[in-house]
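re: that chain from earlier
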Amino acid sequence: MDNALFDDLPPSQVIHTLAGTEHTLATEVPLAITLNGVNHAVMMVSPCQLEAFVTGFLLTEGIIAHHRDIHDLEFSREQDAIIAHVTLANRCHQPWLQQKRSLAGRSGCGLCGLESLQAALPDLPVLPITALPDTELLTGLRAQLPEWQVLNRNCGALHGAFFVDHQGQIRHASEDVGRHNALDKLLGWQHHQPVRPEGMILMTSRCSIELVQKMVRSHNPTLLTLSAPTRLAVEQARHYRLNLIHLPYQQAPRVYAASAHSC
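^ sequence. v structure.
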């Protein structure tokens, strides 16, 4: 997608306080996703990397298995809202219609609005055993972040998701007002590459269960987080053989789940 279509909706804008001082704040807009003409969800997003976001979102929702399952994707404007018109392959559209979820009540937890509690803990395929990264290679990641967090450096209030190679170098970044959105944007970018890059994913946010599920659905074996995970996220990471590592500030990495030692 050409983001220039929405030049009047930049990801950050200058706002004046009541005292008259200028500050740059993050932009947040509603993005409505329609699948073959049927409304699916409305998400609040940063208006950038939208094609990657839609791809990653549909992947981690289990609606598509590959970006080629999206036959067409067009964006339109309705005042300050953006509408993503997605044309799905029939093999994806029919199962989605049969298992359509009500997402109108989504909130920050990323799981609200589900029609059944069982959908909150889906039975996903377990990841293959993957070796833990050398934790010494991870100690320099925080120092790399300012270079890649362009929007956050400009206005703050944005989460970041980063693709890290096996040498501990960041190779791509996605930013958004929502942590789930940032990860979906990164996963969408990954799936659009001619040769899928293999490595690790770093999140600036805490790790809760829905991030673990997104990693499993996208077949990514190692998740690094700058904030601590929840207990349930650790339990699920161990169950699905996801390497889960917390990178505390000024402390050694903490390995909460290791693929070879998972249940």
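Confidence is low (pLDDT under 50) at residues 102-108.
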